[in-house]
Amino acid sequence: MRKPVDRLQAALTVLAGHGHVKQRLMKAYEEHLVEIDDDELPIAMKQGFADLRGLMHQVTPLKGESPVCASVRKMSFEEASQCAAQVVKLYGEISRSRDEVEVSLPLGDDKSTRVPPFLVKTV
């Protein structure tokens, strides 16, 4: 199972590729983002991703068509561009949230829990 950050990065690669924005958006979402579960995302991202999912499933498909295909087909160029920009924004948010993870080091007098000298920042 791929992590959401990896899926969003793969979607960005598709969005930056060749073709019309609607085609790239549809491919990026169907191949990389559709399988992301809200529970895998940081709390701060859940609403933004739910909004994107809503936009990508807002149109009832015709026979033989996926909801994503139908929704993107009905979007204007500007709407599709806004959805693509939302994917970029979500990737930025998940990347920042990964960088903000704090590492807690054990504190104590026991030698087994001491911080190695090379990890201690000197002033």
Number of domains: 1
Number of strands: 0
Classify the helix fraction into a percent range: 55-70%
Q: What is the C-alpha radius of gyration, as a whole number of Å?
A: 20 Å
Summarize the biggest pleated sheet.
none
Q: What structural category do the secondary elements indicate?
A: mainly alpha
Mean pLDDT: 86
Count up the helices: 5
Strand % is under 5%
- N-to-C SSE series? HHHHH
Measured between the Cα atoms of the first and last residue, the distance is 43 Å
Uncertain parts: none
Shape: elongated
Model description:
The chain is an all-alpha fold. The chain has one domain (4-102). It has helices spanning 4-15, 21-33, 43-56, 67-74, 77-99. The chain is elongated, with a radius of gyration of 20 Å.
Give a quick rundown of the structure.
It is built from five helices and no strands. The chain is mostly helical and 123 residues long.
Write the layout of secondary structure elements.
Elements: H1 4-15, H2 21-33, H3 43-56, H4 67-74, H5 77-99
Helix pairs in contact: 1-2, 1-5, 2-4, 3-5
